[in-house]
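Session log. Operator J.P. requested a structure for one protein chain; no other inputs attached. Running the standard single-chain path with token output.
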Amino acid sequence: MLDQLVGLAMLIAATTVFLYYTTWTLLMVRFVFSFSQVSAAKMPCEQPFVDPGHPLHDLFPPRVWAIRIPVILILLGSAVVGSFLSVVMIRSNRKKAVKTKLAAGKKKA
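Structure written below.
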């Protein structure tokens, strides 16, 4: 029963984060292509769905953090996974070394 409650709490937290991030990145800003005066190529241009002065913008951090936060989380997650794997590999090699020393000691005796 407890594992179901924990799973439900994790599902609700993940859904909330997903909806918040999606609203922040997709609904608050839209990219449209307009012709630049410098060149004839189409250049992406940010145009918010919501007016810049609207109080809804106070609920979200600046747009630059929409990229920084996932990059930071990916780097931290990779560091944690790499550290865990290295600790496991070091412990495994130590156990193998002890076993080979014991086996070599038994052969001599």
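Operator note: The radius of gyration is 26 Å.
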